[in-house]
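Backbone-to-sequence.
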């Protein structure tokens, strides 16, 4: 058994581990330690993470006071943008050496468009382009929800040369739509004479939330249900990876690759274990494979560093994964219906977190004024 840091071993196995967290106080020595000691290769954020950072600490109060003093009529949304952009720029600068050393594959930091734009293609594109310009870092990824409207927004942003992290993907069907939109976006950009060799993208495929929902549906299915509990989320991810291999090994893709295009990697999200009966690192251990990313919350990162086991697990068991998905259907459970509900619930959760964040900023501005 290797005594080497499991986080480093996962990196050596071809997977990039990103941190699913941001807070101003950790953007100095703490983050540098993770980059150098743990080989953390990037960072993701979302409205709930920023809510915890800004609303529940006093780390941003000084900047809030300064921004309000400079412009008393500034909106709460713009106040948030000012705070978030400063953090994202600092994080992007911290990861710049990673970005350079990997030739722009890793070292990415994600910033999400406002979640209430999830069904607004034009609004998502407009805000994505605005944040891209304001952050002004080559290793920024604009985060766009993978809704029906988000598919077209993603394609348009890719065609405009913007790095995009497509989030809240639960179904294999929607993942395939996103991967195909990436190819179309690159084709449009290439046809117009734009460079495509520096564009990076990830498709954030959510994992543990699928098991939470499916396991609940399996409770009434007896022994057959018990046999599938805790297995469907990983099976769903493996099926998605099978499509990744096929799509980015196709003849159509090879033409773009010859022009310098890079595959859109699958990123495993929602990888903290929610069921205490399951291994606390199962959604990391079971999904290790080449050309993938796993974005892990701090608690899961610490647990995996402590007792994670590393082997290339993603490549095997695809036939079993398809079998498990089919067994779910045989039990009368629609995975498509569950993943549709999870997409809507995920968007609603981020909308609510963003609303709470803006209300908290408003409360703080009243106290600081």
């Amino acid at each position: 058994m290797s005594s080497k840091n499991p986080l480093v071993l996962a990196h050596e196995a071809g997977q990039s581990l990103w941190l699913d967290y941001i807070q101003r106080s950790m953007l100095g020595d703490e983050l540098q330690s993770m980059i150098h000691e743990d080989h953390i290769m990037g960072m993701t954020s979302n409205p709930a993470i920023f809510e915890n950072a800004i609303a529940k600490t006093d780390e941003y109060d000084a900047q809030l006071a300064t921004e309000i003093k400079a412009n008393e009529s500034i909106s709460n949304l713009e106040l948030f943008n000012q705070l978030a952009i400063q953090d994202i720029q600092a994080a992007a600068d911290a990861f710049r050496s990673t970005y350079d050393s990997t030739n722009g594959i890793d070292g990415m930091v994600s910033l999400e468009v406002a979640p209430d734009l999830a069904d607004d293609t034009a609004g998502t594109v407009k805000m994505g382009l605005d944040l891209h310009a304001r952050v002004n870092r080559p290793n920024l990824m604009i985060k766009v929800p993978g809704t029906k409207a988000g598919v077209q927004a993603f394609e348009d942003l890719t065609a405009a040369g913007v790095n995009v992290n497509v989030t809240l993907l639960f179904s294999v069907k929607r993942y395939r739509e996103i991967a195909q939109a990436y190819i179309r976006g690159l084709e449009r950009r290439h046809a117009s004479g734009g460079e495509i060799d520096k564009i990076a993208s990830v498709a954030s495929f959510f994992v543990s939330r699928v098991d939470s929902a499916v396991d609940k549906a399996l409770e009434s299915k007896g022994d057959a249900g018990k046999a599938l509990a805790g297995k469907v989320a990983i099976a769903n991810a493996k099926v998605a990876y099978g499509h990744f291999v096929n799509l980015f090994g196709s003849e159509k893709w090879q033409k773009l690759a010859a022009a310098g295009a890079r595959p859109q990697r699958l990123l495993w999200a929602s990888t903290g274990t929610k069921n205490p009966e399951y291994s606390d690192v199962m959604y990391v251990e079971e999904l290790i494979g080449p050309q993938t990313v796993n974005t892990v919350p701090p608690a899961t990162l610490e647990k995996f560093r402590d007792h994670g086991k590393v082997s290339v697990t993603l490549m095997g068991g695809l036939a079993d994964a398809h079998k498990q998905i089919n067994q779910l259907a045989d039990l009368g459970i629609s995975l498509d219906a569950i993943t549709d509900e999870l997409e809507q619930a995920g968007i609603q959760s981020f909308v609510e977190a963003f609303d709470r964040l803006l209300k908290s900023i408003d409360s703080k501005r009243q106290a600081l004024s």
